[in-house]
Amino acid sequence: MKSGKLKAVVDYNSTNYFIYRGRPMGFKYDLLQHLAKDMGLKLEIAVSNNLDDTFNGLRSKKFDLIAKNLTITKSRNKLIDFTIPLEETRQVLIQKLPDGWQNMTSAAIEDSLIRNQLNLANKTIHVQKNTAYYRRLINLSEEIGAEINIVEDSIYGVEQLVAMVSRGEIQFTVCDENVAKVNQNYFPNLDIRTPVSFPQNIAWAVRHNSPEWLSYLNTWISNFKKTTEFAVLHNKYFEVSRSQAIVLDDYHSISGGKISPFDEIIKQKSKQVGIDWRLTAAIIYQESKFDPEAVSWAGACGLMQIMPESADLFRIMDFEKPDQNIEAGTKLLKWLDDNFKKEVPDSLERVKFVLAAYNVGLGHVKDAQRLAAKYNKIPIVWTGNVDYFLLNKSASRYYRDPVVKWGYCRGEEPFNYVNKVLNTYHHYRNLIEKS
């Protein structure tokens, strides 16, 4: 609460956290948004599909909360404190349907599959390392009185192993049933009907000796699970009929890995000026939601909402067209970056100034810097310094100040713009490859 941030770690998969048509989504992501809003905090999400790194990050206070599908087990209780359960699931065997299954009878298909857990004797099953799936298979091996060859994979996550079964690269894996149902949309040649566990509780986790934090979370989870919002979210991501259209879309970060139909142009034009294409994409998402026909009340048009004056600056004539529009936008970003480079040498800090200037104009940001210097703030630091004066530049005390050259500015829009673009960029960096 003192930091103003809720630092949560999630895993990247088709239900918890992903990008769809440029927008961050996911069941756990949406739950965390509700939690952070109720706490009045900014949500800061990290991604880790490695449980060792996850638990170490919690212990070292890199994270405040593990918001994953953690199965409650006695061994994990020694490492972390679980919240009350968010949901219930069971572990199921993932196996590939026989080749040509579409033309086979149901009886013939059933004969080719494992339905009796005793038949897992001497079979090889790949699971993600350090997961409840591994421990469950150890126990199952004891229960059936025969060896199961369990291969712990330290590289691939659960859904990657599911995909490998579909491609025939491995024979079996295990995952939670709710996740398996969603992945069956991607891979209709998989069977997920053989359980390997009893129903198990899924929960989030916090550090040991955090009783107030744990109590708050338990109360929040208990109350939120009773709401209509929770039911809507659960249906959105886990009801097969609702999720199928999303997971099969090319613009899902897992299935197609695309942000928009303009990714290749964005990459090309961004590379020409030395900008991370994911930042350009985040700007376009904020400006137009990837609509090339978008036009603002002020006359800005296209994907990057280019004004005619900006297009003239770079001698770009057909700036309504997507490729020319993106070229004008990326050149403008480079021009703004060059303007701030000497006075704001830190590139991570400078991008905030560039984004603000892209939204409201270079002159207003320079005014805010001059105000910051006058009022003993740091003119080359954005947060808590220059951003304050831009946000409040609509107050006569500031826009009439002698150091101000560009007059009145409704600063709330550029202030929020910087935060929104950087937030989207953070999600793109979490989930989308740089090149």
In short:
This protein is α/β, with parallel strands linked by helices and 435 residues long.
Notes on the structure:
By secondary structure, the protein is α/β, with parallel strands linked by helices. The chain folds into three domains: 5-87 and 201-247, Periplasmic binding protein-like II (D-Maltodextrin-Binding Protein, domain 2, 3-Layer(aba) Sandwich); 91-198, D-Maltodextrin-Binding Protein, domain 2 (3-Layer(aba) Sandwich), CATH 3.40.190; 263-431, Lysozyme (Orthogonal Bundle), CATH 1.10.530. Helix content is 48%, strand content 15%. The strands form four sheets. Strands 1, 4, 5, 6, 7 and 13 form a six-stranded mixed β-sheet that branches. A three-stranded antiparallel β-sheet has the order 11-8-12, covered by helices on one side. A two-stranded antiparallel ribbon has the order 2-3. Helix 12 packs across helix 19 (412-431).
What's the structural blueprint in terms of helices and strands?
Blueprint: E1 5-10, E2 18-20, E3 23-25, H1 27-39, E4 42-47, H2 51-59, E5 65-71, H3 74-77, E6 81-82, E7 87-89, E8 91-96, H4 106-112, E9 124-128, H5 132-144, E10 149-153, H6 158-166, E11 172-176, H7 177-186, E12 190-195, E13 200-206, H8 211-224, H9 228-238, H10 240-247, H11 263-273, H12 277-288, H13 308-313, H14 322-340, H15 347-360, H16 362-374, H17 382-391, H18 396-399, H19 412-431
Parallel strand pairs: 1-4, 1-5, 9-10
Antiparallel strand pairs: 2-3, 5-13, 6-13, 7-13, 8-11, 8-12
Helix pairs in contact: 7-10, 11-12, 11-14, 12-19, 14-15, 15-16, 15-19, 16-17, 17-19
